[in-house]
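Why run this: before we spend reagent on co-expression, it is cheaper to look at a predicted model of the complex and decide which construct boundaries make sense. The entries below are exactly what would go into the expression plan.
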Amino acid sequence: MTTVANFAIDYRQYLNEHGEVNTKLPDFANNSDTLIQNYQDMVLTRTFDLKAVTLQRTGKLGTFPPILGQEALSVGIGSSMQKDDVLVPSYRDHGAQFQRGVSMQEVLLYWGGDERGSNFASANAKDDLPISVPIASQYLHAAGIAKAFQYRQQKRVAVTFCGDGGTSEGDFYEAINLAGTWKLPVVFIVSNNQWAISVPRDIQSGCETLAQKAIAAGFTGVQVDGNDIIAVREASLNALEHARNGNGPALIEAITYRLGDHTTADDAKRYRSREETNAAWQREPIARLKSYLVNIGVWNEEQEKNLQTQCAAKVEKAVKAFLDMPKPNVTEIFDSLYAQLPEALIEQREEAISEASS
Amino acid sequence: MQAIQYREAIREAMVEEMRRDERVFLMGEEVAQYNGAYKVSQGMLDEFGPRRVVDSPISETGFSGLGVGAAMYGLRPIIEFMSWSFCLVAADQIINNAPKMLYMSGGQFGCPAVFRGNNGAGGQLGSTHSWCVESMFSSVPGLKLAVPSTPRDAKGLLKTAIRDDDPVFFLESERMLGLGARGGKDFSRYLKDTWAPPTPKQDEDFTIPFGVADIKKPGNDVTIVAAGRPVHFALDAAEALGKEGIDCEVIDPRTYRPLDIDTIVKSVRKTNYCVVVDQSWPFASVGSEIAAQVYEHAMDDLDNKVIRINNDDVPAPYNRTLEQEMLPNTKKIIDTVRAVTYNA
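The model came back. Tokens follow.
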């Protein structure tokens, strides 16, 4: 017998769960300003997230998927992208969206059932796709955008997310297969947060790692500690550079844990133990990075207190803007359906206007 | 007048639009190196190269979804399904994503993609390969759907489809791809001067707008509505019925979305009788929709009920005789028109 191919999956972690460095840091991580910025962004993301859940509980927001526990992954990927790259998010990626310039008000509008929240004002995020709620269908859209970059010979990269459950979908496999076949400039992120609603990782797939699925599609997959922002950013920067230089796609499986419910319509206590969640809290990303920053002497409790106050104020401001937003006009039901409204719908549109005003 | 096959008319439309617009590209199974499973894209790889004529893996969900992403990002993909029967594995991408992108992005990202391929029974292909998708897909808001019946309509409508800013489902027919090889002999005499498109020399920018029905044969006694392949059955029926003194008007809507109901209603007001031929299944079909709209607009003008001719309500049989029996055909139309006009 001859071995015709050999594969291995690398795992990276720089900061362990206590915030201790266990291997030589990549260069960017020696700049404490960068890490402080990441830390502040992660705290803001969490402040927003907790507030959004409260808004839903008090009837001011629709169903909302908390990102609690995945802030390092989301902020880490978003902050390593370049301006003219394109983010193709799933529904639990608002940390990355904020890095791209999407506003908190826009994300609240979206989850409040207002399509205006997908019309991003920021020039940086203008080309980013809206949140995608179906599972893994956005992987193909990212591949298509990458195809457009390749077609136009642009050095841009599409970055997309799905969860551990998403890797079981046909769209996931067809997307990575096409991207590998055509060497498309796309980076696939798998947010492996261990739970697809109530379905645990171990009955999602027989694979030891989800990263190895990339091997079958002909490109590299790596696994990182998704709660270690240094590991996330290093893998992301490498993957983006690889794709930007025409070397094809890459896949990053980020090991993390969904500390909250799947959405506000879910109650995770019904299917997972308190012991498991408590253990996961010991590995969460924000306390870990804070501990590291405090230990190296670049962060203190006074700064922390100021940061918490600032984040709360920013979130309150966004919430107020969201709640003060005038209701959408009834004609919006029709106006974005076709590039030009067909004749058969003109009458329906007029009826809707007169019903709304009567 | 040129001798041009239906498949060549489709190719001419694609080639002309690809020359005209750098954003347009063709993607699908076997479209490039093999020149298309049905030779529709013959020679296109030679002219445009592999960047713009793209052989895809056997992956309908994959290339449909990728096409949606590319279209949202400003390209204009033409996505070929070898058969519309094969689009069903890609249903989420083509009906749950493509037609909703503009809507769900608050008007930011349109999806100017054309999905095209063979629709309907190809001749003993069995039930899984003989889908007619117009009834299923016409009920989806946000898309447009064309069913051309002649080389002229195929070319003019496909050029419009490629230029359209919304997703278009373009339904061809394996049974019609060769029509036109023998010139006018392949068509009813009623299409004598209208089955072929103008040559590029005669009209270099020939297009046919969506939502404009074509009166394939004018008449006064009964309105027959048919699109796609059944148009030819309707014209043959009209010829036979003409000999009995029944003067049929054959109306081809050409696009079901948008639907030109005005032309149909105008005809029914004149003839007072209406038969709708539709090659999909009867329950909740496009034929039913047309019948319902005729009732809504012209109930008082009808001298008898509207009758629909559809596939029998069974999967397409593999057996040749049974398949013929299951589909709409000329004899069924003749019998139905006779029955519906008995009180004329």
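Chain A touches chain B through 41 residues (CB under 8 Å). The radius of gyration of chain A is 21 Å. Bring this page to Monday's planning discussion.
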